[in-house]
Amino acid sequence: MSAPTPQSKGSLFIVFLTVFIDLLGFGIVLPLLPIYAKSFNVDASGWTIGFLMGSFSAMQFLFAPIWGRLSDRYGRRPILLIGLTGSVLFYSMFGLATSMSSLTWMFVSRFGAGIAGATIPTAQAYIADSTTKENRTRGMALIGAAFGLGFTFGPLLAATALFTAGDAAISPWPGYTAAGLSAFALILALLKLPESRQPDSSPTAHRLFDLPALREALSIPTVGVLLLTSFVAVLSFAMFESILSFLLKEPPKEPPEVGGFGFELIDVLLLFALVGFVHALGQGMVRRIAKSVPEANLATLGAVTSIIGFLLLVIATSQGSLPLLLTGMIVEAFGFAFIPASIQSLISRRSDPARQGGILGVAQSLSSLARIGGHVVSFPLFYLTATAPFWTAAGLMGLAAVLITAVIRRGKDFEAAV
Description:
Blueprint: H1 9-29, H2 33-39, H3 47-74, H4 76-100, H5 103-117, H6 120-130, H7 136-164, H8 173-192, H9 211-218, H10 221-249, H11 265-289, H12 295-319, H13 322-336, H14 340-349, H15 356-384, H16 388-406
């Protein structure tokens, strides 16, 4: 197999743009999903909504390693195209499920969208193929920036779709809008996205799960700890991102810590957009300072800031304070922005470049597993008391901070055997 050919900045921009446009669909659907599901008269315990929210991540957990290994074997481009095609299909199905008020078809749409969205580690591997080790963190931050911008403009587009349809409640148009955007991203990738590596025809590339290679990678102490750190940090943040729209939309109750803030749906989407905008700003800062600040230091700063954000949200929810709520949301979104790209960069730098697709697929799979847990348990915790998800998330992020600190001076970059 020939060595990967470095790609131009234009290629990185195209992969960023295609991922960003597709993630707009994710940003459109995420804040609406629990609110729509509740309107279908689901059970009052929160478990059904939790499992619906977790279904997307469950499919990512199962399929991220598969797509990663397939991208090592056949190249990154065809896998990204398959994912975009699936997004078009299943976001359209989400719109149909909404118009039919069908919880069953909504589950199907989220399962399918999770399979299609599991190609994110392939985009990460594309960036790893196309950047030097020195620029790896800045490259990985592109994916984080795409998430942040998706969370910014996705909710704004959802609000626009609802307003244009003349309906500020339940409408299929956000789903159809997400499908249209993914279709545009698919066309862009077909026309403009080059391949970043030669397909691998070696015997190991014909195994979807190269378990011996993965065990060897995981046997490197810092890689194992980094994967665990990523899992804990994402589990923590998943509780925030899944419960936020519910907290904003649910009516206030007495005492305040068992209720929400009672915003209208349009306002919920605008506040979600604020979170995405702040997260994108944080990712932009990571890109600017990544060359001068070690990854572990960036991740530690992010974890500590996130803990402060969660504690502010606890106080805001318990007191029904809107100013503290907005401050906590901003601090949390900004703090977490420093963690994923830093950890992903360290994992990439310490892994065999020939198996980066598979290793990053494992990392993405663990992140999906964390999101499953965060999404499933956050709603029952919220129904127990509205502050419980944030207390739990703060404790988990504290553990992540300890783990991040533990790997600062350990490990070294991958070196090929001579």
